[in-house]
Amino acid sequence: MNDSTVTLPWLVIRQDDNGNRYRVGRYATRAEAQKIADSLDSRGHKQLYWVQRIDQNGPGGEDPLD
Predict the structure, then answer these.
(1) pLDDT at 30
(2) What is the pTM (predicted TM-score) of this model?
(3) Which residues contact 27 (CB under 8 A, 6 or more apart)?
(4) What is the spatial order of strands in the sheet that 48-53 belongs to?
(5) pLDDT: which is higher, 63 or 24
(6) Cα 61 from chain centre
(7) Is the distance from CB of 34 to CB of 18 less than 8 angstroms?
(8) CA 46 to CA 32: how far, in whole Å?
(9) How much is the CA Rg of the chain, to the nearest whole Å?
C-alpha cells in the first residue's frame, strides 16, 4: 500500500458557539477520530466536537466542509 491508496474516511469536526464548523482532522479509523474528539471535548471549552464518516463511494462522498 502506498500513500495514494490510503483513505482517511473519518472526520473530527468542531463547531464553535457562533455555529461555524471546522475540520479538525481526518483519520483512518472511527476509534482514532473519537479519541481525538473526546480529548478536545474534555478541555471544557464551549465548542462541540463530533465524528463523521465520509462516504467514499456514493453520492455526497465529499468532505462536508470543502
Answers:
(1) 97
(2) 0.73
(3) 8, 10, 11, 12, 33, 36
(4) 21-27, 10-15, 48-53
(5) 24
(6) 14
(7) no
(8) 22
(9) 13
